[in-house]
Prior knowledge:
Blueprint: H1 3-32, H2 36-74, H3 76-103, H4 105-112, H5 120-133, H6 135-152, H7 157-161, H8 163-180, H9 184-207, H10 223-239, H11 241-253, H12 259-294, H13 298-335, H14 342-373, H15 379-403, H16 407-429, H17 437-463, H18 475-496
Helix pairs in contact: 1-8, 1-12, 1-13, 2-3, 2-5, 2-6, 2-9, 2-10, 2-11, 2-12, 3-6, 4-5, 5-9, 6-9, 8-9, 10-15, 11-12, 11-15, 11-16, 12-13, 12-14, 13-14, 13-17, 13-18, 14-16, 15-16, 17-18
Amino acid sequence: MNLLSSTSIFSFFTLISRILGYVRDILIAVFLGASIYADAFFIAFRLPNTFRRLFAEGTFNAAFIPSYAAVKIESKSKGKKFADDVLSSLLLILLFIVTIVEIFTPYLIYIIAPGFIENQVKFDLAVELTRITFPFLLFVSLSSFFAGILNSNNKFAAAAAAPIILNIILISSLIISYYFELDFSKQLSYGVTLAGLIQLLFLVYVTLKYYKPDLVLNLKLSSKVKFFFRKLLPSILSSGVTQINILVGTIIASFQSGAVSYLYYADRVYQINLAIAGIAVGTVSLPVLSKAFKTKNLKKISNIQNKSFELSLLLSVPASFGLILASEEIVNALFGYGSFSKDDVVLTAKALKYFGFGVPAFALVKILSNFYFARDNTKTPFYISMFIVILNILISVSLFSKIGFIIIPIATSISTWIGVFIYLYLLNLKKALLLKNQLIFNFIKILVSTILMSLVLSFALDSYANYLEYFYKYKALYLISIVSFVGILYLLSCYLLGILKLKNYKTN
């Protein structure tokens, strides 16, 4: 398998999904802006969407693939039985969770949006919308199971393409609501749940070629299935530390009007790079890394570690510089229309800029945690993740009253960078980090290419400043042209420096 080509396939569909996601969010910004309706919908969508990211974007895979791969090595029939038991148990657990949340939704809103209590209309709306959207959790979590089956067979396209369905349906919901003068927030919420169901049916259909499920409601689980579920919770918390930090930030931000929306829009922008540099690379590398550990192939382990680390840096470092330099222009071009005011642009851009500092860390945490997951070790990433989350909370809470919501992206970035250095220290201490000196030289080349790109980007932003202003009609086209040009320049520079060649990323 070639890490670069597989990542490219995964990234292509992810990119399509994210572009459609931006179209969706642009329409939300136009129709809802940063109003109480937007805040209520984002809270309602935040929880199931956080679970989507936790489960679907690599976390479930982190626990499932190593276990599934180990059982399949013994025999295909045992692998089938293991998958059936996991699916059946997962279905029962999810049905229980969804039922409980539907009953006790008001209490959940008290927890995840305590600031809404001061506005009864906003609070009641958040409760109503959460009840509509929460079944999405059931469908998307089951979807992640079938995506795990596909990924374990080195089939990444369908799993990466599935989220496209969500964005198509939500865009359709907004357009229908506009033409028929329906409630935007409610139609969006119904669209979320419908999209989850269709996404699940799509993945089930694709997976049938490799796995045909047999649901067996057996309360007596095998030791291997029990071991998997013991790994799952720590895996969720470890692999999804960035999403947990954002959820924590949303809770704190609920005390400031409009802040929930600002964080949501900023989060949406940098997530596209995280999806490629962290999730795509991590998802693609985990199956081969797990198999390499099972066969104790140290040469292959070292090769995968180095290439996944390098590829993650190659994709995240230039994105970080780009977000820092062009945060306001990006937010303005994407969301600066309709109900989304110039002040909203400025405040969202400030959040995005500070998230930008943390982008390489967000990606590397996913890569470094894989080095443990492939060994069936979920405890160490769990402890590190808990430290990151607690540190984030302490920084955010202690300074929120003085700085406001902007402390949330600052705290998220700082705490995650500290987490990266802890990972590196512990892996090196246990001699489990098999990185080569060549990685340092390649990182220097990445920095050189990034600095060149940044200089050109700064010049272009300054030269076309009048065409990127809030009021200018075609600002998005100018920004796309600039980003495309500097992106191609960066990739060309990397190629000429010898770090973007297909043969360099073979894992065998």
